[in-house]
């Protein structure tokens, strides 16, 4: 099928794109990598009257160290993040998660901003954003707005972005010394969207106890599950499988994933509990190696 007819704009600057969205705030859609937008428009799930293509705005593609964190532009391709030495050195969870996104050809085209704005509950980026407590930077004709990741995902394929807002940048914290991470997921075939995904990042103290633990899950509800309050309980103790297993079971019993074509709710809960243990165990082992 082909998409319904729309007016197409290809602005060269962010200001131009913001002005276009302001002018056509209802019925306009942004185009990033097009990997979700194009199939949805072809199936006419989306029928935008206006499409604003962000691909010519060079200022939206960057990876930079700024104010003690890492800022990544919304149009940065997954592959650019995967290949970034800065990300590998400073953001271990991102470095582990991004290679899990589809296949190389998908990562060549898909963007950080597109993935977060599309908000697929099984996608890797939303899980990472929640686990790391990222900050989304949105721009509109009204100015700039900072949205914490915990308030960004509001429902299935739905975010807190207003119709005239563009996600322009995402800010992630830099990992302290003695930090390790793991992104553990189960999918039916290599490169498929995850049935369940777990992102874990652990920082150890000089004495070897857990100083900080970050944890989030995907594929277990309409948007990522923030397990920060569970992970906090590990702080102060030595890494131990027994504690990880108890936490995994507790998290699994809290989740309420729905049944679908790919997996039953019971299966997803079971897998979630197992992946929590694996992710925490591996993250701790890597944190020890990094010490
Ligand atoms: C075969 C296949 C396999 C895939 N496997 C995976 C996978 O395993 N894991 C995974 O996470 N993803 C996967 N993807 C998704 C892909 O990697 C993209 O990340 C995702 O589709 C959206 O990114 P995009 O840049 O293509 O955005 P687009 O498709 O262009 O846009 C998606 C949505 O976000 C909106 N949007 C885009 N940019 C912005 C912005 N800056 N501000 C506000 N709104 C914006 C658009 O209007 C649209 O509604 C897969 C895709 C395909 C085709």
Give the key terms.
single chain; 291 residues; alpha+beta; Uridine Diphospho-n-acetylenolpyruvylglucosamine Reductase, domain 2; Uridine Diphospho-n-acetylenolpyruvylglucosamine Reductase, domain 3; Enolase-like, domain 1; five-stranded antiparallel β-sheet; 14 strands; binds flavin-adenine dinucleotide
CATH architecture of the largest domain: 2-Layer Sandwich
Mean pLDDT: 96
**What's the number of extended β-strand segments?**
14
N-to-C terminal Cα separation, in Å? 54 Å
State the helix count: 12
The number of domains is 3
Strand content: 25-35%
Ligand identities: flavin-adenine dinucleotide
Biggest β-sheet strands, sense, barrel: 5 strands, antiparallel
CATH class of the largest domain: Alpha Beta
Q: At the third CATH level, what is the topology name of the largest domain?
A: Uridine Diphospho-n-acetylenolpyruvylglucosamine Reductase, domain 3
Q: What ranges have pLDDT less than 50 throughout 5 or more consecutive residues? A: none
Strand order of the largest sheet: 4-5-10-6-7
The helix/strand series, from N terminus to C terminus, equals: EHEHEEEHHHHHHEEHEEEEEEEHHH
Structural class: alpha+beta
User: What is the 3D form?
Assistant: globular
Helix content: 25-40%
Radius of gyration: 19 Å
């Amino acid at each position: 099928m082909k998409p319904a007819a729309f007016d197409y704009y290809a602005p060269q600057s962010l200001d131009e794109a913001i002005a276009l969205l302001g002018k056509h705030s209802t019925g306009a859609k942004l185009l990033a990598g097009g990997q979700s937008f194009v199939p949805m428009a072809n199936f006419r799930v989306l029928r935008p009257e206006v499409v604003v293509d962000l691909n010519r705005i060079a200022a939206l593609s960057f990876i930079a160290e700024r104010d003690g964190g890492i800022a990544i532009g919304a149009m940065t391709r997954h592959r650019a993040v995967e290949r970034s030495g800065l990300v590998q050195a400073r953001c271990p969870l991102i470095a582990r998660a991004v290679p899990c996104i589809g296949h190389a050809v998908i990562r060549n085209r898909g963007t950080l901003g597109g993935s977060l704005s599309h908000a697929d509950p099984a996608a890797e980026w939303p899980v990472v954003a929640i686990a790391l407590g990222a900050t989304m930077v949105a721009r509109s004709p009204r100015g700039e707005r900072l949205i914490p990741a915990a308030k960004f995902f509001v429902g299935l394929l739905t975010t807190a972005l207003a119709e005239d807002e563009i996600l322009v940048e995402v800010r992630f914290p830099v990992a302290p010394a003695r930090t390790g991470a793991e992104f553990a997921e189960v999918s039916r075939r290599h490169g498929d969207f995850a049935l369940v995904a777990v992102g874990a990042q652990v920082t150890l103290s000089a004495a070897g106890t857990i100083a900080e633990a970050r944890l989030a899950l995907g594929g277990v509800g309409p948007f990522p599950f923030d397990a920060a309050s569970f992970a906090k309980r590990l702080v102060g103790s030595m890494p131990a499988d027994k504690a990880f297993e108890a936490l995994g079971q507790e998290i699994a019993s809290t989740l309420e994933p729905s049944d679908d074509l790919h997996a039953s709710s019971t299966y997803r809960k079971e897998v979630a509990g197992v992946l929590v243990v694996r992710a925490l165990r591996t993250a701790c082992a890597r944190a020890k190696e990094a010490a």
